[in-house]
Design a protein that fits this description.
This protein is of the alpha+beta class. Helix content is about 25%, strand content about 30%. It contains four helices and ten strands, in the order E-H-E-E-E-H-E-E-E-H-E-E-H-E. The strands form three sheets. Strands 1, 2, 3, 4, 5 and 10 form a six-stranded antiparallel β-sheet that branches. A two-stranded antiparallel ribbon has the order 6-7. The longest helix is centred in the middle third of the chain and has 14 residues. It starts with a strand and ends with a strand.
């Protein structure tokens, strides 16, 4: 079994509900157990500023799936939520699931990079990840709490959690 962390985000069609439903869907992935979810955060858009704010969270999983099989399963969950990957990069989405970490695995393939290549730049990922595992070591980058201290997380507003 491997420990994996998945970022969840949405800014369309009741984003809070999308993230909660997306997290619930992770519990039904084969050979995978949802261990816990971070609190929800309202966050400003990243990359493409002219769009609604996002709701973000991070889920901690225990899985027997390989990183590639887990990624395929995450993409299928996104599709089932109506995610259209044909839109603008970093644009609005019903549900975004990013595989952040898979144990201490380091991969650099065209369609799968571990740890996630922009993890250390994104407060909307680091803030909820730090709620789950502040002392977790991100291979090649350092501890989550130290990475969080290097970014401006002031725009990450906690939401009342469900």
């Amino acid at each position: 079994m491997a420990r994996a962390y998945v970022a969840l985000g949405s800014n369309l069609d009741d984003p809070r509900a999308q993230v909660l439903r997306g997290c619930a869907a992770l519990a039904y992935l084969p050979h995978t157990r949802l261990l816990r979810r971070s609190p929800l955060y309202l966050t400003p858009p990243w990359g493409l500023a002219e769009q609604p704010a996002f709701v973000n969270a991070v889920a901690e999983l225990e899985t027997e799936l390989t990183p590639r099989t887990l990624l395929r399963a995450l993409l299928e969950v996104e599709r089932s939520f109506g995610r259209d990957r044909g839109g603008p990069r970093w644009g609005p989405r019903t549900l975004d699931l990013d595989l952040l970490l898979y144990g201490d695995r380091v991969l650099a393939e065209d369609d799968l990079q571990l740890p996630h290549p922009r993890l250390a730049e994104r407060a909307f990922v680091l803030r909820p990840l730090a709620d789950l595992a502040p002392d977790l070591h991100v291979p090649g980058q350092g501890r989550v709490d130290a990475l969080l201290a290097r970014v401006d997380a002031g725009g990450c507003v906690p939401l009342d959690d469900a």
